[in-house]
From TrEMBL:
Residues 610-857, 969-1216 form the ABC transporter domain. It comes from Glomus cerebriforme. The chain crosses the membrane at residues 6-25, 57-75, 95-114, 126-146, 268-288, 308-327, 429-447, 506-532, 764-786, 792-811, 878-899. Residues 273-571, 760-933 form the ABC transmembrane type-1 domain. This is P-loop containing nucleoside triphosphate hydrolase protein.
Length: 1239
């Protein structure tokens, strides 16, 4: 019995004992953990029974037999008192080795006995893993024991030798059986999460885990099914669920981000590290067997036992399989587990931060001194584009590095072992090779620094581009209404050009880096062999040459990974800093608001919209409400009124703690998070300490109208109907085909402005090249090996069929997982965008927990296919690599069968190519699958491009430059449908508006008012009829020519991140005085005459519109709704079109300001045709004519005087229902008298 028979099992046994002791003493560790909610109940079979009693009995029985066997053998040897030395081997050592095996099997017997106790269920998984490790090691050593017993004679006593052989045979058979039983024993019963199967990787046998056979059923399902969907994918392991990861991650919020990642994932990283070290230590063992095999052939085979060649080949097979299984586990824990965990917890934490972040927060920037005031706004922490970039790019970069960080562990180990082997083979020549590598390192460091700098610049430009794209998508309707597409396209392409320049610079640095690293092994090989042969004068034998080349090839693979890992490390460090900066930014200060329900108001409070990290950055241009001392009476109605820009919204948002409190106190209740889970049977729904908010800017989710109204509350039909009636939504539901179950598009795009507000009130080529390259290399490999051993071609054909079959299984399932991974990302970003838009409403209702749970759910939905996609790669790699190891084994057997005509050189050539064969075919399939998956992205882009496009921008012949010269609009028999299969929205309407006429368009919500404006701008093409402007049918000209000649002031004010100047003059077309004049027209600035008579004090707020470089936050959030509408109005009036359409453009402006605006329009745009869609009748009461719509029909079109004079008219009824009939009638009579006096 030799060292190999007993030492490895003893080491494993001692390691098991130490780990179990540590686990026992740490059993009471109270680290933060969620209770696993998975059960064995699948909602179909209530009595699922699971037992491993039979297997446990078999394991225990074999352990007892093995202990008895080796105890008997030990006693026999001691009794013989053999102390002589035979063949240079100490028999006393043999007794010690036998005793060690007795210890190993006795320890296993004790563990097996404890494992059968019913009180230690939670330890059974651990015990089985430990026993499997011991049994597997004992099994591998039993094979060597078997050879030693029959080849090497330890004793000259026939009986002892016979007993040794019997013991070796029994040991091999029993070890094989117990290993097979242990490794195939399930670790637990099937688990379910609310009826959904949990991935078998959490409970299947160790064999199924290390070979990833647990996901084979998914592969088969994908092969026979047209396309997989989310319901076909098993649930993630509990520790990888977003909820679990999020709760673990938030425990250490006071620590650095890197430390938090380590603490939340340390157990995963330990498994990852163990697998990495194991694979690194085994990595060169096959090469060692290759060297011995070639030495065996190179020397006279008669000098060694005839079985030594078979031992070497079999050793290559076993060590290859062990190495590949270890590598598979390393990448499983790296790519499938750690990567998913990091992505999930970072995305969840970023979203959780978004729920608490302060609107209008500015972050300190390293380059602040170099920034101009106009670009200061780009530093906003709260920009949707920037946070989206953090979620989409930065978390992915950190996740990628979490896969590769162990390279810094296994590379040094592998390099050390490689250099040691090379030194043993080549002597001092390997030292020269090492010095050559060291000399090249500083050059790499220089390139690395340049790359890191380029990455910083790239991320800044990328943030700008993503922000720009996000704002364009948010304001796409306005961009099209103003015919700005070409100019915005130019702006986007300019930014993209800058990004591509930075990408190109980064690519150049990466290319240089890779070139250096790839050239290094070649240079090292040349130096090494030159010194070995020319300087040292040694002969380069086949065994030395092929073994050295194999080691160098493996070393080259190791060194090839290093540059990429270094680059990923740089990128990950940048991403960690960016995420950390956002996570450390300011939050709403809930604690500063006193939640005493007996008082609502302010005490010595000063508030403002924006907050800067440094107090001295609070500019004098900031609007500040100072020294507020207000108390609102409890249980009574309070009205906050004042002119536009006076601070009404700021005051209200300050009560909700959505602004920056500079000093003082705020008293206001805050809705608890449990409010969305009330008792459904309660009769009184007026709850203490709860808040409801109807924001100026409607917040609607991409969901049904009913779900938007209930907003997470239980559906109670009686109460729901009462709410619908109070909000006058019954008629809207009658118009909508699906009633209150109608799906609201993103941001409520399927609803009109009034409906939204009332609902809110209710609440591929590179992969192809690689693939072809690998196929060519694979064919060449087969030809080379077959030239050496002709039998190999048969084996290669058989294995190729198996490779193809496995490849087809993999490609189909992998493609589906990639598709689902891409598709399920969109809901995450959509939910995030909705949250940012409605963050004030969400916080006011105490719905942050509900939205957080929804985000965690969406993260899980996305992580499921991603987890499976990564695990599928492991499934393929393990099978291909094991088949490759078997193929190499077969090639070696064929060589041994043909030693009469094959020398060591040909044998080395054949085996070297055989070892590379499996990698080539695996990467062929992987590259093909990646190529196929990349086609999914192309397919999605093509689908997007195939969406019906609007009419051409320009159609020849173009209208005259002076068109429209009069502003006459004639609508003839106009029939409008939003889709051909839907009912008409406008029913064959006809009317004519004369040039320079002022026409008000009124009607109930959903009557078709906004549809007229969309038709006029050709957002919707008529199904019948036409619109003629100054004699030209607008359907015959390009949409750019049409929209550029019209002006619309939409009901939703859209502002872009920038300044007042950049929002007024988006493309720098006007002089500065024109911008100031436009602001004065809409009364955002006082007239020159008024300004001369104004007196100001130090306590007065400076008008922010006096400085055109005043920053505008994303969406204009640092301005009130009224100010935003006036700024958009000022922008539109700069255009000076002949036809102006106002679509409820003054809805958020007070009456006095609205009156001033209307007077200004009548005074300064007397030569223009004005169409005004109004929700307030006072806005259009003095217009020339009123167009009354109802359910898509024109029911009245006459002067206000004639309409109000007719008590049967719909307009008359609308005036009466407004509550302002007398005021409206007086205004009409006054206007009518003025008109008659004029004539």
């Amino acid at each position: 019995m030799s060292y190999f028979d007993a030492i490895p099992p003893t080491i494993v046994t001692l390691g098991s004992f130490l780990l179990l002791v540590q686990k026992y003493y740490n059993r009471n560790d109270v680290s933060i953990q969620l209770i696993n909610t998975y059960t064995t109940n699948n909602n179909k079979n209530q009595h699922v029974r699971f037992s491993t009693a039979k297997r446990d009995t078999i394991k225990l029985g074999i352990c007892i037999i093995q202990t008895s066997l080796f105890s008997f053998l030990l006693g026999w040897k001691i009794d013989k008192k053999i102390s002589k030395i035979i063949n240079g081997y100490s028999l006393s050592d043999d007794i010690i080795h036998t005793g060690l095996l007795v210890f190993c099997w006795f320890y296993s017997t004790v563990i097996a006995v404890i494992d059968k106790q019913p009180r230690i269920k939670e330890w059974r998984k651990t015990f089985n893993i430990h026993l499997t490790s011991i049994f597997s090691t004992a099994f591998l050593c039993s094979m060597w024991h078997l050879r030693s017993a029959f080849i090497t004679s330890i004793d000259d006593d026939v009986t002892t030798n016979r007993l040794e052989k019997i013991a070796a045979i029994c040991n091999f058979i029993l070890s094989s059986i117990v290993t097979a039983v242990a490794i195939t024993t399930p670790r637990g019963p099937p688990l379910f999460d609310n009826g959904r199967p949990v991935t078998p990787l959490t409970y299947s046998s160790i064999l199924d885990v290390i070979t990833f056979a647990a996901i084979t059923p998914l592969m088969k399902k994908a092969y026979y099914k047209v396309a997989l969907n989310d319901s076909d994918i098993d649930q993630l392991p509990f520790n990888l669920r977003a909820l679990t990861a999020y709760h673990k991650f938030k425990v250490w919020r006071s620590e650095s981000l890197l430390y938090r990642i380590w603490k939340a994932n340390n157990h995963i990283m330990i498994y990852q590290l163990v697998a990495t070290i194991s694979s690194a230590l085994i990595f060169y063992v096959p090469t060692l067997f290759l060297y011995n095999f070639l030495e065996f052939i190179q020397e006279n085979p008669l000098n060694k036992p005839s079985d030594w060649g078979y031992v070497c080949i079999f050793g290559m097979l076993i060590s290859n399989i062990l190495s590949l299984l270890s590598l598979g586990q390393q990448w499983y824990w790296s790519a499938s587990v750690f990567n998913v965990s990091v992505r999930g917890m970072l995305n969840a934490e970023l979203y959780a931060k978004s729920l608490k972040m302060l609107n209008g927060l500015y972050l300190k920037d390293e380059n602040k001194d170099n920034e101009s005031n106009s670009s200061k706004n780009n530093n906003l922490a709260a920009s949707v584009g920037k946070i989206t970039n953090l979620m989409a790019v930065d978390t992915n970069r950190i996740g990628q590095f979490s896969m590769w960080w162990t390279t810094f562990i296994d590379c040094p180990i592998q390099i050390t072992i490689a250099l040691y082997f090379l030194y043993q083979l080549l002597g001092i020549a390997s030292i020269y090779a090492f010095i050559t590598m060291i000399v090249i390192l500083p050059l790499n460091q220089l390139v690395s620094k340049s790359f890191a700098k380029s990455q910083n610049e790239l991320m800044k430009v990328r943030d700008h581009r993503v922000n720009l794209m996000n704002e364009i998508l948010q304001g796409i309707r306005m961009i099209k209404l103003f015919a700005w597409e070409k100019k915005w396209k130019t702006r986007i392409l300019d930014v993209r050009e800058n990004e591509l320049k930075e990408i190109f610079k980064a690519f150049i640095y990466v290319t240089w880096y890779n070139l250096i690293w790839l050239a290094t092994p070649v240079l090292v090989t040349i130096v090494m062999f030159y010194v070995f042969t020319k300087v040292q004068g040694n002969e380069l034998t086949p065994s030395i040459a092929f073994t050295s080349i194999t080691i160098l090839n493996e070393l080259r693979m190791v060194l090839t990974n290093l540059p990429e890992v270094f680059m990923q490390a740089y990128q990950a460090s940048i991403s960690i800093r960016r995420i950390e900066t956002f996570l450390d930014s300011g939050e709403i200060e809930i604690e500063s608001a006193k939640t005493d329900t007996s008082k609502i108001g302010f005490k010595n409070a000063s508030v403002t919209w924006n907050k800067y990290e440094e107090v001295d950055e609070l500019g004098s241009s900031e609007f500040i409400m100072k020294d507020l001392n207000i108390e609102f009476p409890i249980g009574k109605l309070s009205i906050i009124c004042g002119p536009t820009g006076s601070g009404k919204t700021l005051l209200l948002m300050s009560l909700l703690r959505e602004t920056n409190l500079i000093k003082g106190e705020i008293f206001f209740p805050r809705s608890p998070e449990y409010i969305l889970n009330p008792d459904p049977l309660m009769s009184n729904w007026i709850l203490d300490n709860c808040v409801a908010l109807v924001a100026q800017e409607s917040f609607l989710q991409n969901d049904s109208i009913r779900n938007n109204i209930t907003f997470g509350l239980p559906f109670q039909e009686e109460r729901y109907k009462a709410v619908i009636k109070a909000c006058a939504l019954q008629r809207d539901f009658e118009i909508l085909e699906d009633g209150d179950l109608t799906e609201i598009g993103e941001k409520g795009l399927t609803l009109s402005g009034g409906q939204k507000q009332r609902c809110s009130l209710a609440s591929f080529i590179g992969n192809l090249s690689s693939c072809l390259h690998n196929v060519i290399m694979m064919i060449g490999t087969i030809m080379v090996i077959s030239a050496v051993t002709k039998e190999f071609i048969i084996a290669s054909l058989i294995f190729s069929v198996a490779y193809v079959f496995l490849g087809l299984l993999f490609a189909k399932c992998s493609r589906d997982m990639k598709r689902l991974d891409s598709v399920t990302k969109s809901p995450i970003y959509s939910h995030f965008g909705e949250t940012i838009i409605g963050i004030s409403t969400i916080r006011a209702y105490g719905a942050t927990k509900k939205f957080m749970e929804e985000m965690l759910l969406r993260i899980d939905i996305n992580n499921r296919p991603f987890f499976m996609k990564c695990t599928l790669n492991r499934w393929l790699s393990v099978r291909y690599n094991i088949m490759g190891a078997i193929l190499t084994f077969i090639a070696g057997i064929f060589i041994l069968w043909n030693l009469d005509r094959i020398d060591a050189g040909l044998a080395g050539l054949s085996l070297s190519f055989a070892m590379a064969f499996s990698k080539q075919i695996m990467w062929s399939v992987r590259n093909y699958a990646e190529f196929e998956m990349s086609l999914n992205s192309i397919e999605r882009v093509c689908e997007f491009l195939e969406i019906s496009q609007e009419a051409a921008a320009i159609i020849e012949p173009r209208p005259p430059a002076s068109w429209p010269h009069n502003g006459n609009i004639k609508v003839e028999n106009l029939l409008i449908k939003y889709s051909q299969e839907l009912e008409p929205v406008l029913h064959h309407i006809s009317f004519e508006i004369f040039g320079q006429e002022k026409v008000g368009i009124v009607g109930r919500t959903g009557s078709g008012k906004s549809t007229i404006s969309l038709s006029l701008f050709r957002f919707i093409e008529p199904s019948d009829g036409k619109i003629i402007i100054d004699g030209i049918d607008i359907s015959t000209i390009g949409v750019e020519d049409l929209r550029s000649k019209l002006t619309i002031i939409p009901q939703d004010p859209i502002l872009f991140t920038g300044t007042i100047r950049s929002n007024l003059d988006v493309f720098s077309q006007y002089e500065e005085y024109e911008l100031y004049e436009s602001l004065r027209r809409v009364h955002l600035l006082p007239s020159i005459e008024d300004e001369q008579h104004l007196t100001t004090t130090l306590d007065d707020n400076i008008n922010v519109f006096k400085d055109l470089d005043t920053p505008i936050n994303e969406g204009g959030k640092n301005l009130s709704q009224g100010q935003r509408q006036l700024l958009c109005l000022a922008r539109a009036l700069l255009k000076k079109s002949k036809i102006i359409l106002m679509d409820e453009a003054t809805a958020s402006i007070d009456f006095a300001m609205d009156d001033k605006i209307q007077k200004m329009i009548r005074r300064e745009f007397v030569d223009c045709t004005i169409l005004c869609i109004a929700h307030r009748l006072r806005t259009v009461i003095d217009y020339d004519r009123i167009l009354v719509l109802d359910q898509g029909n024109v029911i009245e079109f006459d002067s206000p005087y004639n309409l109000i004079s007719n008590s049967n008219s719909s307009f008359y009824q609308m005036c009466q229902n407004s509550g302002e009939f007398d005021i409206l009638k007086a205004s009409i009579i006054k206007q009518n008298n003025n008109t008659h006096e004029f004539f």
